[in-house]
Design goal:
Chain A: InterPro entries: Complex_I_20kDa-like, NADH_UbQ_OxRdtase-like_20kDa. The complex is a heterodimer. Chain A is globular. In chain A, 39% of the residues lie in helices and 16% in strands. Chain B is globular, with a radius of gyration of 21 Å. The chains are: A alpha/beta, B alpha+beta.
């Protein structure tokens, strides 16, 4: 009974922590645009908090820079189980334009923490971000919660 | 006690650490710790052709991504001793003003979010979305547009596109006054904003504050006055204020949105016909170009060797503004909540402010890289 209730509630309250690990800020403002009345993220039960300690979804934007190499894993450890990681934009997937000779980035993010979903694009459109979170988050979180 | 804010903080868009020294609730002084998003753009750009480097310059900063490509292209045109065709210049100015409107709206929305005024935050974002539509209509993309090339712009704008942009701007202006009045005369937001985070004219000059932050403290300077397109074809006036507090900074941005909307209407009325792009033979040499980004003056210093970039230096406005914020605005602020709001009012953009100093001990050389 309690587990069934939990899995229903987990689907309707997804807390998102946005971690910019060294991008150009473009993906971050597209997430900010998601909060606007046109897209209205909160009607799907998704809340952007920027607090890893209560996060269900960690949105990683940006190629990993020197400073984030150990801090990213620390943030990932701080988030309680069940949690999923969504890599947003080209930077966490491949390093985008920064991953060339001379750049100081350590992409991809999947070298540091396990990634569940990837949304390519530079930056992806707000509707794509929303679709990705909704396609992966509720199911995966509820399933992992049950396994626990 | 020392209270660390960040690098992950609900009020910030980007990672930065703000160490504030407090006594009780009162913030005595603040210190800024950078270094979270340094990517080494200038070094990647070296020994590349402009076709490759212009995409890197776009990704210096995501919010004001447009002006970086324009300045980059104009610096190259300067080196080659040429100019873009008149229609391309007008289209560049049009996109620049649209980008400025969306950037100022997002900056003000962040400020209202820091004040926990959710309603105004939502209003600002609701105003911004049609402007993003206009940018998408014109350039085909919302944030990183890939719209500028050396010698012009990539695509021509249709007459129907321009008339739709005009309609979007007219709609924005109609709604806009109501929201500005809410902020200007609302007792609650006014009390939280007036006389908080004060910076005087001398302090702003000492910290080399630029853009709306400098203009809110009385620096009467806008680089658009000296830009050839604005100087020769458009009627432009600098808006400035002398209060120097959070209220002035937010109001200055609101006033600039009005000026930008007016400029967009002028551009659409007077845009000449003709080609939008011409072939440019890139010369060797050194070129420098400045432009007024939404946050202040941005400068590109480029040295080319034939078609390749030998050396490039990018100066972005945010670094001075963040420094001015830490040193002068966040001094003796009443509460920590006000300190976060003051920081948001300075419109910091960390992605373009990151620098690293490389010191070669053997040669005794130092070099600062973006």
């Amino acid at each position: 009974m309690l587990d069934a209730l939990k899995s229903v509630l987990r689907k309707t309250s997804i807390h998102v922590c946005l971690v910019n690990t060294g991008g150009c800020n473009g993906c971050d403002i597209e997430v900010l645009a998601l909060l606007s009345p046109r897209y209205d993220l909160e009607q799907y039960g998704i809340y952007v908090h920027q607090n890893p300690r209560e996060a269900d979804v960690i949105l990683v934007t940006g190629a990993v820079t020197e400073q984030w190499r150990d801090k990213l894993q620390r943030i990932h450890r701080k988030a309680p189980e069940p949690k999923i990681v969504v890599a947003l934009g080209n930077c966490p997937i491949s390093g985008d334009v920064f991953n060339q000779e001379g750049g100081s980035v350590y992409a991809p993010v999947s070298d540091f923490i396990p990634v569940d979903a990837e949304v390519p694009g530079c930056p992806p459109r707000p509707s794509e971000i929303l679709e990705a979170i909704l396609a992966v988050a509720p199911g995966a979180i509820a399933e992992r919660g049950r396994k626990k | 006690m020392i209270l660390p804010l960040g690098p992950m903080h609900p009020g910030y868009k980007e990672p930065i650490r703000l160490k504030v020294k407090t006594r009780g609730e009162r913030v005595l002084k603040a210190e800024i710790e950078y270094g979270y998003v340094h990517r080494g753009i200038e070094r990647v750009m070296r020994n590349k052709t402009w076709q490759k480097a212009i995409y890197l310059s776009e990704r210096v900063c995501g919010i004001c991504s447009y002006i970086h490509t324009q300045t980059f292209a104009e610096a190259f045109e300067r080196i080659s001793d040429t100019e873009a065709p008149p229609r391309a210049q007008f289209l560049r100015a049009l996109t620049n003003e649209l980008d400025r409107i969306q950037s100022h709206l997002i900056a003000n929305s962040t400020y209202f979010k820091a004040l926990d005024h959710e309603t105004m935050f939502m209003y600002m974002l609701a105003l911004r979305e049609p402007v993003m539509d206009a940018i998408e209509l014109l350039t085909g993309n919302r944030v990183n547009m890939g719209w500028n090339v050396v010698g012009g712009v990539r695509m021509d704008a249709d007459k129907s596109h321009l008339s739709r942009i005009r309609k979007i701007i007219l709609d924005l202006e109609r709604e806009f006054d109501r929201y500005v009045e809410m902020f200007e005369h609302g007792p609650l937001i006014g009390l939280r904003s007036r006389d908080v985070g004060y910076m005087s004219l001398e302090e702003a000059e000492k910290a080399r504050a630029v853009g709306p932050i400098g203009r809110a403290s009385g620096i009467r300077y806008d680089f658009r006055e000296d830009h050839p397109t604005y100087r020769d074809h458009l009627d432009f006036r600098t808006v400035w204020r002398d209060e120097g507090d959070n209220f002035a900074r937010v109001m200055n941005r609101f006033d600039e949105i009005r000026v930008s909307a007016d400029l967009i209407k002028q551009i659409i009325d007077n845009i000449p016909e003709g080609p939008v792009r011409k072939k440019v033979d890139i010369g060797s040499g050194y070129g420098e170009w400045r432009n007024e980004a939404p946050r202040g003056e941005v400068a590109y210093m480029i040295e080319t060797n034939g078609n390749l970039i030998k050396n490039i230096s990018i100066r972005t406005p945010s670094i001075m503004n963040i420094d001015a914020c830490a040193r002068y605005m966040l001094r003796d602020v009443a509460t920590v909540a006000d300190a976060v709001a003051t920081y948001a009012s300075a419109d910091p953009c960390i992605a373009c402010a990151e620098r690293v100093m490389v010191i070669d001990e053997e040669k005794g050389e130092r070099e600062i890289l973006l």
